[in-house]
Structures are given as C-alpha cells and as structure tokens.
Amino acid sequence: MSTIEKSIEVNVPVQTAYNQWTQFEEFPRFMEGVKQVKQIDDTHLYWKADIGGKEQEWQANITEQVPDKRIAWKSQGGASNAGVVTFHRLSDLKSKVMLQLEYEPQGIVEQAGDAVGVVTRRIEGDLERFKSYIESRGQETGAWRGTVKH
Hints:
- By secondary structure, the chain is α+β, with helices and mostly antiparallel strands.
- The chain is built from three helices and eight strands.
- A hairpin with a 4-residue loop joins strand 5 and strand 6.
- It is globular and about 45 Å long.
C-alpha cells in the first residue's frame, strides 16, 4: 500500500468547502481521470476512472462522515483505496482541506507511475482544481449534512 498526504488552503468558510466535497457527483469537474461518480445512497458511491491508461470501476463505502470535520471511505472491488479528507477552520473565510489516501498500485504501469510520483502530482492537481472550483463559485453546489458512524 502507498500513502499520500496532501493539503490545501481554500478561501472559503470550512462549511462551504465541506458542503462542496459532499457533492461527490461533481468530482469529475476537478479530479483528473475521474469519469463518473454516482451516489447510490448515503454511504455508497460508484466510481469510474482512468487509472494508468486503463478504465476502472469500483464502489466506495463511506465509513465515517462528520459535518464540517471529516469524510472517510474504503473501496470495495476494483481500484483498492481508502482514505480520509478532513476540514479545518483557519478563519471565518479560510479553511484547510487535508487528504490522506492509501492505495494499492495494480500492474506494472501503475507501479511505475507510483514510483515516479504520478499519483502524488495528480492529487496535488486535484486539490488545486478543487480550490479554483470552489473559490470561483464562492458557494457550494449543494450539501449533505448527515452523519455516518461505523
């Protein structure tokens, strides 16, 4: 398993950043390689993404969700990954989004890409695009304020 930890400061309130992140079906707008995310119910997501030049599909289970604080998940089948994204208030108008991702590179192409930092750069780019996306809008496209505890 490989682990990546990255963070970014965004110029929106923590609630706005969190609310936007709960709009999983919007992920293809700022996540490179993500073709589709479909929310099946409160705790299950279907993903389709291009990973290492190969289209992959998997489900992810949200294992914990606390409004304005954290969202944790674990994949089932397909691309093996798990992680947590946390949200931190820096001021009334600024917050920090921190992402921790564990994943298992599959096959020689993914392993080689992992070795040279391709996934790390992709995550950094995704966070930068999230920052641009939410700051340019100034408000979230929706929100889910429920709590999930497992």
